[in-house]
Amino acid sequence: MSDNKHKIVVLGAGMVGKAIAIDLSKQYEVWAADIDQASLDFLSKHYPIKTVGVNLMEDDRIRELVADFDLVVSAVPGFMGFDTVKTVIEAGKNIVDISFMPEDFMELNNLAAQKGVTAITDCGVAPGIPNLIVGHHNDYMDIEEFVYCVGGLPKVKVYPFYYKAPFSPIDVVEEYTRPARFVEKGKRMVKPAMSEPEMVFFPQVGTLEAFYTDGLRSLLSNMAHIPNMKEKTLRYPGHIQLIQALRTAGFFDKEPITVKNASIRPIDFTSKVLIKDWQLNPDEREFTVMRIELTGREGNTAKRIVYELYDEYDEKEKISSMARTTGFTATANAGLVLSGRFTGKGVFPLELVGMDQDCFDYVMTYLAERNIRFRKTVD
Question: What pTM was computed for the model?
Answer without folding.
Answer: 0.94
